[in-house]
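Exercise (ungraded).
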Amino acid sequence: MHTPMVETTTGRSSPMTLTGYQRRAAWHLKLLLAPSVLLLGTFVIYPAFYSIYLSLTNEALSGPAALNPRFVGTRNYVRLFSDGGFWNSLLVTFWFVLGSAIIGQFILGLVSAVLLRRPLRFRPLINAIILMPNAVPEVVAGFMWVGMLAGGEHATLNKIVAWFGIPSQNWLVTFPLTMIIIVNTWRGIAFAMILLTSGISSISHELYEAARMDGATPRQIFFRLTLPLLMPTIFLYMLVSTVTTIALFGLVYALTRGGPGGATEIIGIYIFNQSFTAFQLGFGSAVAVVMLAISVVIGIGYVRLLKVQV
Amino acid sequence: MAAIELNGVQKSFGTVDVIKGVDIRIEDGEFAVFVGPSGCGKSTLLRLIAGLESINAGEFLLDGKSMNEVAPDKRGIAMVFQSYALYPHMTVAQNIGFSLDLKKVPKDEIRAEVEKVAEMLQLSELLDRRPAALSGGQRQRVAIGRAIIKKPSVILFDEPLSNLDASLRVQMRAELQRLHQELAATVVYVTHDQIEAMTMADRIVVLKDGEVAQSAAPIDLYKRPANTFVGTFIGSPRMNLLSASVRRSSDGSVEARADNGWVIVLPDGFSAFDGDRIKIGIRPEHLRLVALPAAISAKVSVVERLGVETYLTFNHPKGSIVARLEGDITVKVGEQVGLEVTENACHLFDSSGASIQSG
């Protein structure tokens, strides 16, 4: 707003020069930021740039290239765009993100957030049930679901569907993509619910009362008041969940390792397989760089939308 | 026609009784103001009338029809909220027309109605703005517009001016009164500001601890407070209260001997016996300076000179007394002055605080 007038030694005030206090304050800020900057620099910025460098080489974990990596220019990228496996994994990732993060987690999270604001009888219990999946480590959750969805009569889901006369099957083989979407939805409802609950709580209670006085039905209140006012939160949720779901690895790897036949090979698993199963670090890095670019573009898109909405 | 009648209305939240049996009658077209200190239940009472809270016991009648079970939007009542509660994602026009839009009124009809209301409230230039781009006074007017477009028979205001600065408040007070005359609706207005209450109301309902302390025209509250609570609540600086004993002489004269040593001659016509303990209420403006020696004399403790008037405070262990004197009085702190109480200006209350004055 206004520049603080600073008393100088001559007694006159000057808005320009920094006082010792201001300099110390600036130093404090830098000092407090230093640990974060150091960590992010070491484990995010540096690896990101190193990946870009690697993607331009034929670096590998075995064979002649491992001993003597060469600069290959854009060859990895050219190969990438003509690689069927890459396009497949991009498509799988698209359906996975759309199905689990954008539709599944979001809709169930929103429904939970709206319902759990009302005085329900078993609210703490329902809350706990929704939050628990998020507390389980993803690999543990993955293996737990493997047991649920496995083939054979004794697998949990098969026992349940047997009551309805449905023959037992290996769910992760019959409906692989659907199953990983369901599992990831199950795991992510809590995050959506927490974020959306906080968004709903920030809407003034008086607005709802005003709407009631105006004669709005609960349905109208939801669609004309809650939902539009929740838009900034929804876009924030979409941003965070899209980017983290694109980068997901452990849960799906524990479930299917990308199989069968690449049906669940989301891009994180594709990168892992290319880099550490096929040992082509250079090519894997190129995929990672493309994925990073896609995430950044999506992120910028959401941020733009967010600004328009607020 | 929209006369409001509350009969034995009660409301409690859990174990807390907020409204403890309220009987009020507000005539059609009246501007009624609920006043009282924080927590007296005035806002709750308003919300009961609005239908935002349910009534636990008693009955709310609007034109003789029970409204207890009627939904808020079906009562023909509109409300202006303290925070205005404007929908932040809608324009001014959308805010004002929202209730019509919900009823699926055709768009061009809504537009026409909104423009009519906007013109009345000088909002025509602002119809396409969002609430965030409006000043406090403009938001206030949008909130009023949203209420009056429904053509309500009753408009409720919940401390509507409390978020405005002092000069805007004076202006809005006048505007609200003009609006009340134009709309001819019954208005119920909640405030803790007695000036708002005194200047705007046809009837003031003073509430205390969830009960009606007094319901009357403003000037009647000032002249004939029903109890010490109303006496001290209305008027600024507040009414002085002196504890005293009644002395009735054989010659028929009556005087009160106050605990601070003052002796005040009282006109008869109140119900108290010789020796009874009473409370005497004297408004600061009903004290004036007289030359010494005088029947009452006191030492000045504080002098507040406002130019147009002067407040003198006289401290005493049995209670301080404030005198409000016209003009700029140059009295020094510590000076002994003579005082006189305006004739017939004393308000008499029994020891429980209820008025014992007849008429």
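Further reading is listed at the end of the chapter. For now, observe: Chain B touches chain A through 22 residues (CB under 8 Å). The helical segments of chain B are 42-50, 92-102, 107-120, 136-148, 166-183, 194-200, 218-223, 228-233.
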